[in-house]
Design brief:
CATH topology of the largest domain: Deoxyuridine 5'-Triphosphate Nucleotidohydrolase, Chain A
Shape: globular
Distance between the termini: 41 Å
CATH architecture of the largest domain: Distorted Sandwich
Structural class: alpha+beta
Number of helices: 5
């Protein structure tokens, strides 16, 4: 059995895990991202325009413009209570806490999310970063490059270019599973230039040549 060596680059990083022993994919976990001042202001503008600060902190990504889940009675009560908040309570420190614990991905935006780990893929294999089926089908969040590739000689941090394919703002919690890593064998065949290729029945018939049914 091949061994995948994993090095933590951040103390809060999670080692990739399988939900079940026989699963092909190992889950990758999100670490905090660095926001630009422009990105922070964009988030604050959304809150000022649409929801109370407390609702934003508790429910961003789950209701209203941020998702499609209906509010529970407990959540409705929390939102009603939040209506008494004053502007003085919307402090910078609370925003700082939010940006350290949440990752905001605007519609049709790609966010490079760190995982805090580096890996040594065995020679003759590659690491493939695939979407998590639930995150992709329910929230429209999937790798921007469809499948990320980690070569066997790469020793840098594994990052996930997560794209929001939906028309809604999406939020990821730091520590949430954002993608899955699959180690697959590859052929290290040597490319050789030739004058001619061997003939086949199909020849150069390409897209659509085999019909629709």
């Amino acid at each position: 059995m091949e061994v995948l060596k994993i090095k933590k680059l951040h103390p809060n990083a999670h080692v990739p895990t399988r939900a079940h022993d026989t699963d092909a994919g190992m889950d990758l976990y999100a670490l905090p991202v660095e926001y630009t001042d422009k990105e922070k202001e964009a988030c604050k503008t959304i809150v000022d325009r649409n929801v109370t600060y407390a609702k934003f902190l508790d429910l961003f990504g789950g209701t209203g413009i941020f998702g499609g889940t209906l509010l529970s009675e407990k959540q409705k009560t929390a939102i009603d209570a939040a209506g008494s908040l004053t502007d003085s309570e919307l402090t910078d420190s609370k925003w700082d806490d939010f940006f350290k614990s949440k990752i905001v991905i605007m519609p049709h935006e790609t966010k490079m999310i760190p995982t805090g780990i580096a890996i040594a893929v065995p020679t003759g294999y590659m690491g493939c970063v695939y979407a998590r089926s639930g995150l992709a089908s329910k929230n429209g969040l999937a790798p921007a490059n469809c499948v990320g590739i980690v070569d066997s000689d790469y020793r840098g941090e594994v990052k996930v270019a997560l794209h929001n394919y939906s028309n809604k703002n999406q939020i990821i919690d730091v520590g949430e599973r954002i993608a899955q890593l699959i180690i697959q064998p590859i052929s290290l065949c040597a490319p050789v230039e030739v004058d001619e290729l061997d003939e086949t029945e199909r020849g150069d018939n390409g897209f659509g040549s085999s019909g629709a049914k």
